Amino acid sequence: MTKKILSLVLVVLLINLCGMARVHAATKAFDNGASTQESDEQKRATKVKKTIAKFGAGRKEFVIVKMRDGGKKVGHITEVSDDNFAIREDKTGAVTSIGYADVKKVQLTPFTPKNMKVIGIAAGGVIALVIVGLIYGLAHGQ
After folding, report:
1. How far apart are the C-alpha atoms of 114 and 31, rounded to whole Å?
2. Pairing relation of β-strands 72-80 and 62-67?
3. In the beta sheet, which residues pair with residue 80?
4. What does each C-alpha distance from 19 to 24, 27, 28 come to in angstroms?
5. Residue 122: CB partners within 8 Å, gap ≥ 6?
6. For residues 84-113, average pLDDT
7. What is the pTM of this model?
8. 69, 74, 106, 117: most buried by Cβ count inside 10 Å?
9. What's the Rg (C-alpha) of the chain?
10. Which tens digit of pLDDT belongs to each residue from 7-61?
């Protein structure tokens, strides 16, 4: 009788141990996923911080900052600190402080978006004039 009870207790303990191993593995996987996500955000923020530090403050080039919430800021970097950086916006002239973790992508450009549109329109006009000149030359046999 005692052997049956001891065998039953041993079986229950083994089943319990197998179940605990699964719970422990699932918890460990969940913890690793959370820490991986957190480290990805930290890596992204560190990368943005290095990029901003490389660009430096007070340069003449414009910076295009694409935000994680979908917004976009264009302007000059005016100040760089450990937690954030400040940018003087091109459109409004207002100085905005931006946290490194809020940034999705940073680009350096010598032109403002307005200047890029003007350059694109001018290039399109030159191409149109060349095409018109070729058509005129071909039509008059030159």
Report:
1. 47
2. antiparallel
3. 85
4. 9, 12, 14
5. none
6. 84
7. 0.53
8. 106
9. 31
10. 666 666 666 655 555 554 445 555 555 555 567 888 888 888 888 888 877 777 7
What is the pLDDT at residue 133? 85
- Tokens linked to 110: 């010598």
Q: Are 103 and 66 in contact (CB under 8 A)?
A: yes
> What are the DSSP E strand ranges found in 43-128?
62-67, 72-80, 84-89, 95-99, 103-109
pLDDT-based confidence at residue 126 (cuts at 50, 70, 90): very high
DSSP 76: E
- Is 55:78 a contact under the CB 8 Å cutoff? no
Residues 6 or more apart in contact with residue 98 via CB below 8 angstroms: 65, 67, 73, 84, 85, 86, 87
In whole angstroms, what is the distance from residue 67 CA to residue 76 CA? 16
**Three-state secondary-structure class, residue 17:** helix
| Tokens linked to 58 | 């007070």
